[in-house]
Design goal:
There is one protein chain. The chain is mostly helical. About 35% of the residues lie in helices and about 5% in strands. The chain contains 3 helices and 2 strands, in the order H-H-H-E-E. The protein has a two-stranded antiparallel ribbon with strand order 1-2. A hairpin with a 2-residue loop joins strand 1 (about 80) and strand 2 (about 85). The mean pLDDT is about 80.
């Protein structure tokens, strides 16, 4: 699928990029090759679902679980409450500092 110079200029305009003529020519060729490759991928048979046995890859089930840390955060955190770190509020100006 060939890409035209107008296509390149429109894409550059949408991306707010300045593209000179030399770069536009190179981009035309590159984008045309990419789109040709995508067209080839679309021609692959879709009935291959990976259940043929020998070549299929088994993936582990996606499970949400806490990360096993070597040292639990409660051991090194200065203060925690309900599993969250407690941090001091931003210090206010020291008394008399505003008078100076």
């Amino acid at each position: 699928m060939p890409v035209s110079r107008a296509d390149i200029q429109r894409i550059a305009e949408l991306a707010e990029l300045a593209v000179d003529d030399g770069t536009a020519t190179e981009l035309e060729q590159q984008l045309s090759r990419i789109l040709d490759y995508v067209a080839q991928l679309r021609e692959l048979p879709r009935e291959a679902d990976g259940d043929d046995g020998a070549d299929s890859v088994r993936l582990r089930k996606d499970e949400v679980r806490p990360d096993a840390l070597q040292i639990p955060p409660a051991e090194f955190a200065p203060a925690m409450k309900q599993g969250l770190f407690l941090v001091p509020r931003i210090a206010e100006l020291a008394p008399g500092a505003a008078d100076e």
